[in-house]
């Protein structure tokens, strides 16, 4: 049972990617109802609260924090195995607030996404520092857009060259796990735009194997963690 | 007392709803092109959490100095044709995270707009983080008296990016910021081995 919470208030991409654009949130006695993609996958995003896809959410920090609190307090998620929280780029209000509001419960950790080039790694090192500062465990780093295989000649190109060693080197230096590398597959963008599951649309893609392997590593981390928790109790 | 922006002829903002589409790269290329045609350019890096501009000009280790008029921007070359201001120059260590809430970010943005001694510039390019929040509201408010020329919006082709940019267009409309145009970045990739063009980030 999975819940996906989109706290990118200014740029909510999750509704479109899940094929849920245009859906609205329903209220009931037990709170806000998430929008369900499937019986075991519920989604919440500010995108569902806007009347038009062109509506801009021009809010300062405090108002964004208020909505994030509501998402956590008023959404009737039911019993869930995994709550995945998608965040905007940065180390600001949304990030501080979500960690703060979830501090009463237990956060397994953060999965940090980067692309291979130094300009990206530069920001990701800051994000890793943010996690240390707020005592958020890091499950690991994913290197996205890691190489592109030309569909015609099958040669590989590094579109975002890892001039400083990519995520691999950074992870070694900062003693953080590299969960995996995902290559660029034009089908990924297409599937997201159409709101369809890339994993179902392109099961043979090398990107699919990468995703699956990364997801498995995350699940193993979470399972290990709970086992250790239970041992302590 | 003469304002620090009095000698700046044109102010341009580079915006995008979406992260990772290439705002900082486009800001940099724009500055370099303008310099190539003989203009004096400044770049104000308003991305406080992820300041990319210093590294793009290879001056990430530079320090910022004070003068009577405020902060002296960092010059990227002896010609002094491109000058920069970024929080990147104010960090003790390059990996230091700026973990600030809105009000603190707003205060620094106001300082960046008012207290940098730009001198005479043909163009001041303002690079922004993704979104439509504190940094954007504060930047537009602080720059309003100086009548910015307008905004350039950057996107990549896929719908998920365009969706965010449509919101950014709404932001511009609501804040009275003229949109000079939209740049579609990462628009197709030409394979260096066989010259086949692939639309990695979709088309349209």
From TrEMBL, chain A:
> Which top-rank group of organisms is this from?
Eukaryota
- SUPFAM superfamilies found in the cross-reference section: P-loop containing nucleoside triphosphate hydrolases (SSF52540)
> Where does this polypeptide localize?
Cytoplasm; Nucleus
Q: Which UniProt keywords apply?
A: 4Fe-4S, ATP-binding, Cytoplasm, Iron, Iron-sulfur, Metal-binding, Nucleotide-binding
Q: Name one Pfam family in it.
A: ParA
Please tell me whether the keyword Nuclease is annotated for this protein.
Answer: no
Checking InterPro entries in the record gives:
Mrp-like_CS, Mrp/NBP35_ATP-bd, P-loop_NTPase, YlxH/NBP35
Q: Which PROSITE patterns match?
A: MRP
Q: Which PANTHER family match?
A: CYTOSOLIC FE-S CLUSTER ASSEMBLY FACTOR NUBP1, NUCLEOTIDE-BINDING PROTEIN NBP35 YEAST -RELATED
Q: What is this protein called?
A: NUBP1 factor
UniProt gene name: Nubp1
UniProtKB/TrEMBL annotation, chain B:
Its subcellular locations are:
Cytoplasm, Cytoskeleton, Cilium axoneme; Cytoplasm, Cytoskeleton, Microtubule organizing center, Centrosome, Centriole
Keyword S-adenosyl-L-methionine on entry:
no
GO molecular function per UniProt: 4 iron, 4 sulfur cluster binding; ATP binding; ATP-dependent FeS chaperone activity; metal ion binding
Transmembrane region positions? Answer: none
For this UniProt record, give its keywords in alphabetical order, as a comma-separated list: 4Fe-4S, ATP-binding, Cytoplasm, Iron, Iron-sulfur, Metal-binding, Nucleotide-binding
- Name a GO CC annotation attached to this entry: centriole
Supply the Pfam families for this chain.
ParA
Q: Which PANTHER family match?
A: CYTOSOLIC FE-S CLUSTER ASSEMBLY FACTOR NUBP2, NUCLEOTIDE-BINDING PROTEIN NBP35 YEAST -RELATED
Read off the HAMAP family from this record.
Mrp_NBP35
Subunit-level organization: Heterotetramer of 2 NUBP1 and 2 NUBP2 chains. Interacts with KIFC1. Interacts with NUBP1.
> Its function?
Component of the cytosolic iron-sulfur (Fe/S) protein assembly (CIA) machinery. Required for maturation of extramitochondrial Fe-S proteins. The NUBP1-NUBP2 heterotetramer forms a Fe-S scaffold complex, mediating the de novo assembly of an Fe-S cluster and its transfer to target apoproteins. Negatively regulates cilium formation and structure.
Q: Under which name does UniProt file this protein?
A: Cytosolic Fe-S cluster assembly factor NUBP2
**Species name:** Phoenicopterus ruber ruber
């Amino acid at each position: 049972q999975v819940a996906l919470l989109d706290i990118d208030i200014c740029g909510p991409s999750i509704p479109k990617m899940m094929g849920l654009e245009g859906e609205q949130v329903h209220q009931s006695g037990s709170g806000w109802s998430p929008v369900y993609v499937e019986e075991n996958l519920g989604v919440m995003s500010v995108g569902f609260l806007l009347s038009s896809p062109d509506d801009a959410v021009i809010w300062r920090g405090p108002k964004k924090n208020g909505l994030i609190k509501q998402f956590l307090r008023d959404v009737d998620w039911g019993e869930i195995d995994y709550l995945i929280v998608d965040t905007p780029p940065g180390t600001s209000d949304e990030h501080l607030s979500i960690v703060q509001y979830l501090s009463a419960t237990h956060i397994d950790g953060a999965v940090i996404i980067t692309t291979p080039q130094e300009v990206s790694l530069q920001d990701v090192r800051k994000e890793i520092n943010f996690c240390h500062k707020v005592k958020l465990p890091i499950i690991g780093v994913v290197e996205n857009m890691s190489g592109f295989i030309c569909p015609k000649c099958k040669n590989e190109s590094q579109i975002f060259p890892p001039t400083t060693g990519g995520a691999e080197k950074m992870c070694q230096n900062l003693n953080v796990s590299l969960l995996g590398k995902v290559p660029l597959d034009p089908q990924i963008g297409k599937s997201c735009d159409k709101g369809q599951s890339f994993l179902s649309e392109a099961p043979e893609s090398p990107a699919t194997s990468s995703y699956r392997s990364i997801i498995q590593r995350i699940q193993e981390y979470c399972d290990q963690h709970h086992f250790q928790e239970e041992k302590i109790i | 007392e003469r304002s620090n922006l009095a000698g700046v002829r044109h102010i341009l903002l580079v915006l995008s709803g979406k992260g990772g589409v290439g705002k900082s790269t486009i800001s940099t290329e724009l500055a370099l092109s303008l310099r190539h045609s003989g203009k004096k350019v400044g770049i104000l890096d308003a991305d406080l959490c992820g300041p990319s501009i210093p590294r793009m000009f290879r001056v990430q280790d530079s320090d910022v100095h004070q003068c009577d008029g405020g902060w002296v921007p960092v010059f990227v070359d002896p010609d002094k044709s491109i000058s920069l201001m970024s929080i990147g120059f104010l960090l003790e260590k390059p990996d230091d995270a700026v973990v600030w809430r809105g009000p603190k970010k707003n205060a620094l943005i106001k300082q960046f707009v008012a207290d940098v001694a730009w001198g005479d510039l043909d163009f001041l390019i303002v690079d922004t983080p993704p979104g439509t929040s504190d940094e954007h509201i504060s930047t537009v408010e602080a720059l309003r008296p100086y009548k910015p020329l307008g905004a350039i919006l950057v996107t990549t082709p896929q719908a998920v990016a365009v969706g965010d940019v449509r919101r950014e267009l709404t932001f511009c409309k609501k804040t009275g910021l003229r949109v000079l145009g939209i740049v579609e970045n990462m628009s197709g990739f030409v394979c260096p081995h066989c010259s086949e063009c692939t639309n990695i980030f979709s088309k349209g």
